[in-house]
Design brief:
By secondary structure, this protein is mostly helical. The chain has one domain. Helix 3 packs antiparallel against helix 4. The radius of gyration is 16 Å and the shape is globular. The protein starts with a helix and ends in a 5-residue tail after the last helix.
Amino acid sequence: MKLMKQLLICTGIFAALAMSRFIPHPPNFTSLLALSFYVPALLGLRYLPALLISFVITDIFIGYHFGTHWTWGSVLIIGLMSKYFVKSFITRISGAIIGALLFYIITNFGVWTTGVYGYSFSGLTNCYYLAIPFFTYSLLSTFTFSIAIEGCYKFLDNKFNLKKA
């Protein structure tokens, strides 16, 4: 029964991530960052590989590009840091928002390393400046999906006792 529960959770992680990435959406308005934070925060670090594998599988269909490894790396860092923000609803929401900030910093640094903006401090600041609209969508989606995940988790934990999965 425990293995079945874990398999169901892994399938749910993949389905949530895949739907969020494949359904048309505004740029960077996906559950990516909220899931990157909440999966390990609520379910434990043992589900971080399921999350990363879900990213790899969906990226096969979306298309691998130079920046994909920066995204995967940021997901890993967000997942690992999530264990420090599990105490309460407010700390989890704060942690998810900090995760969005880390994603912005890491992935845009990755974009800068391509040389498109030039290898200068001016190019680096321009890269971050031009990404602010995407960061806004990231913050909005992270907050929105965090609230949704908090609600779903509370409901499912009461019904299925997920902490014992």
